[in-house]
Amino acid sequence: MVERLQTFGDIQLSKQVLQALSEMGFEEPSPIQNAAIPVALDGNDIIGQAQTGTGKTAAFGIPITERVNSKFQAVQALIVTPTRELAIQVAEEIAKIGRYKHVKPLPIYGGQPIDRQIRALRMGYQVVVGTPGRLLDHLNRGTLRLQHVKMVVLDEADEMLDMGFIDDIEGLLKEVPSERQVMLFSATMPPGIRKLAQTYMNSPRSVSVSRDDLTVPMIDQIFYEARESIKVDALCRIIDMEDIGQGIIFCRTKRGVDELVVALEARGYFADALHGDLSQLQRDRVMKRFRDGKSELLVATDVAARGLDINNVTHVINFDIPQDPVSYVHRIGRTGRVGRKGQAITLISPKEYRQLRLIENLIRTRIRRKELPSLADISERQAENLKNQLVKLIQGDRLGNYRAIVGELLEEYDSTDVAAAALKFAVEGASAEERMDDLEQELHFGNTGAATGMVRFFMNIGRVQQIRPQDIIRWIADESGISGNIIGMINIYDKFTFVEVPEEYASRVLSCMHQNMIKGRRVSVEPAKARDNN
Ligand code: ADP
Ligand code: MG
């Protein structure tokens, strides 16, 4: 007999919420939702444990939406999250769930002008989602009032504890009326969480997704062995071989992230860095590019990527094996989100087998070993791709004008040569020989010396390293802390670049930039020599 699928309709939900869920494309509750929602609807305190990507947001978002009174203009549910991104995501999801019940969430986080938040808070939202510090700030200013709060959610509680937010969280909980429902969600249950639960929760029910469900079966997990010194090249080969739609590459440290981005770019692979040292603006920009599908590869630290819900991630690549097996579960949770297929790839050095075994023990799954693709494999694969694309074009039969050109060439040249030249042109572009060489470029564009008040620098890096003007501006601005818009003329040649900066910043730029690593190269920066051109 076939077991009937559990649907959201089997849970006691309002028509409005069912309608919203169906429009969100949620067909059936995930295991944690199945377990948590009925218990939460009954008003119980909950400790929910499930890995990332299992649908915890709706597990608390649905009961909240059902239980707050949308006619009452006061904060009735408080959701605390570790990061600003997560606060925004949770608020967005609740806005969707609450669409027809007219339940409105307000995200509150650091980095946003406080007076704007104060004005928003006066508008009477029923649900406030925020980071602990900023919520506490509003509480202390009296701009956030919690006396009508009847539900509190601590989302990614283990993460918040790791980030040192415990005092802030306790500060908030103390201000919430004691007649309240607390829901705590966490991927892991370290002692600190248990203590928090004991102190602030009222006979909480545990809802967890059993270990068997721990690893999403849709994720294919493999590992490659590669010595430390060849890891970047190994990674590039993997990227070439795999059909990566969008991938997140994890490194252990922020430094590691930056270095890998540079090393990848030097090899012609473009990736965005995501880590805690970026300004909020930079992070938002990186996330938006990735979400919009404008960048394919994100290189991130664990902390920066934790809890982010990014759809369509096809690959998670552990460039560094995580130190802590639990992080592995977090990391691979970024792909194969509810019902989608994903691939998790881990690179390990021969010394790291022990860590791999620890991970396998935790997830109770063997991670399959694969051999690194050889260069021959890759070129075969690329040739295959090229052939496929050509066949598509031929079959598409829209060759129009191009056929006429080929016809003319064939009167004089061999057909294989004509086709091969066309391919070469398509793949490699106009050949390098046709470009002006460096010297000629300089003569052509003139080395007229710097503009008044500016000093001109010479850098031994250029188009060959795929340098673009925006790269130069970013590096100078980041390294020397001067604003990008006061940087003057930039001329990029094949092997070198001239850039002008205001005189007063010249020595600062020189000392910050000289011998710095750019795109995997140590770059020399020096004042440009005036050419004695009459
Ligand atoms: P978690 O908080 O456990 O990491 P999220 O709540 O961020 O997971 O959910 C991950 C993704 O799965 C989100 O895009 C969410 O909209 C989607 N999702 C959640 N529940 C369901 C469901 N029942 N059916 C389909 N998609 C779902
Ligand atoms: Mg979550």
Task: Summarize the structure in words.
The chain has four domains: 6-209, Rossmann fold (3-Layer(aba) Sandwich), CATH 3.40.50.300; 219-375, 3-Layer(aba) Sandwich (Rossmann fold); 378-427; 431-527, RRM (RNA recognition motif) domain (Alpha-Beta Plaits), CATH 3.30.70.330. A seven-stranded parallel beta sheet has the order 3-4-2-5-6-1-7, with helices on both faces. Helix content is 42%, strand content 16%. By secondary structure, the protein is an alpha/beta fold. Helix 3 crosses helix 4 and helix 20 (469-480) packs across helix 21. The longest helix is centred in the last third of the chain and has 22 residues, at 375-396. It has 21 helices and 20 strands. Bound molecules: adenosine-5'-diphosphate and magnesium ion. Residues 26, 29-30, 33, 50, 52-58, 309, 311, 337-338 line the site of adenosine-5'-diphosphate.
Structural classification = alpha/beta
Could you give the order of strands across the largest sheet? Answer: 3-4-2-5-6-1-7
How many independent structural domains? Answer: 4
What do we call the CATH topology of the largest domain? Rossmann fold
The CATH class name of the largest domain reads Alpha Beta
Count of helix runs: 21
Shape by Cα distribution: globular
Distinct ligand kinds:
adenosine-5'-diphosphate, magnesium ion
Question: Which descriptors would you attach to this protein?
Answer:
7-stranded parallel beta sheet; binds adenosine-5'-diphosphate; globular; binds magnesium ion; 534 residues; Rossmann fold; alpha/beta
